[in-house]
Amino acid sequence: RSAPNHSAPAQSLPAPIRPAGAQALDSAPHSAPALSAQARPSPRAHGPTACAFAFPTPGPGPQPPPLPAFPETPGAEPACCPLAFRLDPFTDYGSSLTVTLPAELQAHQPFQVILRYTSTDAPAIWWLDPELTYGNAKPFVFTQGHSVCNRSFFPCFDTPAVKCTYSAVVKAPSGVQVLMSATQSTYVEEEGVYRFHMEHPVPAYLVALVAGDLKPADIGPRSRVWAEPCLLPTATNKLSGAVEEWLSAAERLYGPYMWGRYDIVFLPPSFPIVAMENPCLTFIISSILESDEFLVIDVIHEVAHSWFGNAVTNATWEEMWLSEGLATYAQRRITTETYGAAFTCLETAFRLDALHRQMRLLGEDSPVSKLQVKLEPGVNPSHLMNLFTYEKGYCFVYYLSQLCGDPQRFDEFLRAYVEKYKFTSVVAQDLLDSFLSFFPELKEQSVDCRAGLEFERWLNATGPPLAEPDLSQGSSLTRPVEALFQLWTAEPLDQAAALASAIDISKWRTFQTALFLDRLLDGSPLPQEVVMSLSKCYSSLLDSMNAEIRIRWLQIVVRNYYYPDLHRVRRFLESQMSRMYTIPLYEDLCTGALKSFALEVFYQTQGRLHPNLRRTIQQILSQGLGPSAEPSTDPSAEPVSAGADRDSDSPALLLGDEAPSSAISLRDVNVSA
Ligand SMILES: [Zn+2]
């Protein structure tokens, strides 16, 4: 592990001020963030009159690195002065920085604030020793900003309401490839220096960096994959041509892709979530490569975020459904166009099944089942994210599309909505007002006030979605799943098992098998003779399938104490190093009577686990996590049991050295969004 070239802590240095002209951490003209009562930066409209301040004389102690060279306004005096600043406690995931601007600064006068800071081990920044990568050759680092982690990466207005462009200069050892979520990048090999620039305004959480032994391969005219060399052929094979197909489908629906390139980087198993929609460069966990259908859905979901979430962003963390619900809707429009309605309905059924499972765990009156959740001071917004954010949000958007009666007309509306609000942040009312003005006939009918389906109720009622989509077009795929599940729970078992075992599931879609296993998991513990028959019928077959299938089967094994298959659990845990495939199993093992087995496996494998994951598992081992784990508002707690909740871009852990306590235990929810 090595820290970047920062030489002094922020507090030891004054924050100098320079006239506007170029970007360090660029507060571009469009962003105009409200700094605090003391300061309000202004738009560029009134010309580049520089304020006359001078550089401070550096004090004793380690000298800071030289300031980056900014192009000066022709004829302007170099002007810099130290500024008074204050750091105040905010929450345990960040402090507030107040900078006092000089009284001489006039309203509308452009200025630039330069902050020197050091960031080493921080919630947003994950340093990996070589042995935590696939190649074991070079160290690796990645950042995960969503939702409020990036304040530990660089000083920022860490709210999705504020957007700005950014530039970055990154120095890396030779042989280490650096990538960022930027529209432009250059590399000067002799200096080992990368320069990045994001030309469109983005919220702080979308600034992302990754560096390691990464190699590229083209998979389309504007896309390439980046992966460790040993993974590159697989990644290329699975995505070649497909990403362009998805991008083109999305463009036909929602207008031009506005970010230039769409690249994908595969991250080591310690990446704490499944995927993150960083603009120009989707981050995705390598472990998903072996589960094809999940890979497809996860990438398409991130593609959809290019329009919904990245271009048009929810202005507050209380309305994350605006990004997730719309991205999920767009993702399903893309899969309908590309793979047909039946597959899309199957995937939706699988996910809504998980939503209802989550609701049984949380209770119908859980405040986090609202679309508009209340963010109390000090609470990490990531804790508010759950399947409701995605699926109840999706159901509301789907309901709106049904109101207008024609999905294509609704696509046109969304296209106009993106065109109007791209590169800005919006609240739900903006979406709903736009909807009603796009469809004046609906406004006249007061569709927003229909009894029982009021827009207000959609936003603020707890419980399940007020309406769910008609998934009958998927019945050719979902009906066999239902039928097989019924057989396995019918009496007498021996006859039913005989009938069930005659059904060949080896040709099923992954989502069918996963849905079937989820149902069995819901019913666990099952009678021992059922588990025995299930094992006889499926264990070897499922063991040859992808990890999404195996984890579900192994959870059934564990929850039913089916010892003959326990060796498969051990083998799985010995080969899986990601949160999403380890934590659900450890939680199940420790909830039941298999804790000593869990301890033994953990001691054998812990050396290959990322320290954060190791800590999480240690905590599970020391406490055990029951299905009735209480929701917690402790901001240091893990937002959700990330291993079990597999929302693509659900929050990173904000743990630092904190051991997590599962805020909302979603151990029964194995889904990916
Ligand atoms: Zn998402």
TrEMBL record:
Binds 1 zinc ion per subunit. Residues 1-65, 624-659 are annotated as: Disordered. Its cofactor is Zn(2+). The keyword Flavoprotein does not apply. Zn(2+) binds at H301, H305, E324. InterPro entries: Aminopeptidase_N-like_N, Aminopeptidase_N-like_N_sf, ARM-type_fold, LTA4H_cat, M1_LTA-4_hydro/amino_C_sf, M1_LTA4H, Peptidase_M1, Peptidase_M1_C. Residues 476-621 form the Peptidase M1 leukotriene A4 hydrolase/aminopeptidase C-terminal domain. It comes from the Eukaryota. GO terms for biological process: proteolysis. The active site is at E302, Y390. GO terms for molecular function: metalloaminopeptidase activity; zinc ion binding. Keywords: Aminopeptidase, Hydrolase, Metal-binding, Metalloprotease, Protease, Zinc. Pfam families: Leuk-A4-hydro_C (PF09127), Peptidase_M1 (PF01433), Peptidase_M1_N (PF17900). The keyword rRNA processing does not apply. Residues 1-10 have a biased composition (Polar residues). Belongs to the peptidase M1 family. This is Arginyl aminopeptidase like 1. It comes from Chinchilla lanigera (Long-tailed chinchilla). The gene is RNPEPL1.
